Amino acid sequence: MSVALENSIYISDKAKEKVQQLMKDAGVADDTSYFVRVGVVGGGCSGLSYKLDFDNEAKPMDQVFEDNGIKIVTDLKSFLYLVNTTLDFSDGLNGKGFYFSNPNASRTCGCGESFAV
Questions:
Q1: CATH code at position 80
Q2: Whole-prediction pTM value?
Q3: Residue 55 scores a pLDDT above 90
Q4: Whether pLDDT at 53 is above 50
Q5: Residue 3 lies inside a defined structural domain of this protein
Q6: Which has more confidence, 4 or 48?
Q7: Residue 59 lies in domain
Q8: Cys staple from 71: which of 33, 35, 43, 79, with CB 3.0 to 4.6 Å?
Q9: Is residue 4 one of the residues assigned to a domain?
Q10: Contact 75, 61 (CB under 8 A)
Q11: C-alpha closest to that of 36 among 14, 60, 61, 18
Q12: How confident is the model at residue 5 (pLDDT cuts 50, 70, 90)?
């Protein structure tokens, strides 16, 4: 028996907590028009880099997801690279910050900020 995974973008509990804190710090936590925008841009040591920001303006070709109570938006082109990726957060000794657990990446760089498919 196989279970089909829904094509989506996910967010871990730790990343959710950090996003909520950052939105509060930015003064947009109570504004429901704001969401997390993720994307992929060319560059970085492996060829593609991740982009992460708060936004409140949807674009016509945006793909909209909600996971763990957080609204996540990406453009269609980026979604092709990010399908079934989980946004996570690490506060460990080896590095602090957001990172993407991307099953589509064939390799990543040492800093974890760029990847190749």
A1: 2.60.300.12
A2: 0.84
A3: yes
A4: yes
A5: no
A6: 48
A7: 9-116
A8: 35
A9: no
A10: yes
A11: 18
A12: low
